[in-house]
Amino acid sequence: MRSNELDKIAIDDMKHKSKVRAGFSEFSRKLYADTKNKILKELNATEKDWNDPKWQLRNRINDVDEISKYVDLSKEEYGNIKKVGEKYRFAITPYYFSLIDINNPNCPIRLQSFPNIKEFEGSGELDPMKEEQSNPAGKITRRYPNKLIINVTNACPMYCRHCQRRRLIGDYDRNTSKKDIDESIEFIENNPTIREVLVTGGDALLLPNKKLEYIFDKLSQISHVEVIRVGTRTLATLPFRIDDELALLLRKYKVNVSTQFNHACEITPEAVRAVDILTDHGILVRNQMVLLHNVNDDKYCIQKTNEELQKYRVIPYYLFHPKDIKGTKHFQVDISKGLEIMKHLEGRTSGMCKPTYVYNSPLGLGKVPLVPMENIEHDENGYEFTTWENKTVRKR
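and the corresponding structure tokens:
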């Protein structure tokens, strides 16, 4: 009887999850192949070009007229993208652009990629985490006692419309100067409380391997630095950047990778190839998903995405509540939605598929884990727990 009860729940979940578009689905692969071929033909390029990350970056789609070559835009859509793009720069790799369902205005890739007139609406701040005021030296952001961030570039393969550092995108890509890198490393060297360093940006893996090695080597020589991490979205937006040479470099310095997949349709064969290269070299890959309205704020979407990540050896680490960044109001969700999703994941999926849902406190005061509080009650007679099926049990 119990097994039959569980089967009913599992079958219902499977029905709903099947509606979530995945990167390995036949539909997604056809979309990718069709748009990829159109782009290659338009640019008179080859398969070898396509798989070259430098070619991908040189040919990023960053103009509304380029979008119009592949997507039928209404006059209003054309004007809106042009207007927003003039204020907030955008760029999309041909690879990531090829994941877009061009006939679906609510495609999660499209929503993360195309400038939206709603970016002019709502409140918010350019720097709600006060990163500029959390900078003791060089290009450091420090919010915690024993770990910090070095921002090594403002460049990314594509500029996500929900970007928490959109204030730094500017009009052109630029890497942090050697002077600022050295000043950052010197600060770490002189502060023995720092045990963990996150090298990020922008996207840290847009730096050449030689520059990355310079940073990793300097950090590895500091005795109190025990952990080096790198922040990157290239696995989702430019997977061709990941190769054996880079993996060997990361392995040499025991660098962990923090990435960002926000939807199952981003987890493609190309992305998994990149993941495999890293994990086969013994590199730990963890995912930091952002909860985004209309992109993934659905319990079955989150479940499906995290199960896909687990399947391909990526650890679901964080589910970030969206920050109140100026220009991203349309991505905001209520915390109750995130709590509902976390409640749904209990019992319905593996513990390895459950990220920690966190709210980033403003003013750089750090992350606050958010958990459904109705799971436990306490009185003089003991504890009452609510299970994932909303059944109650007591412990005295």
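(Above: one complete record from the training split.) The longest strand covers residues 285-290.
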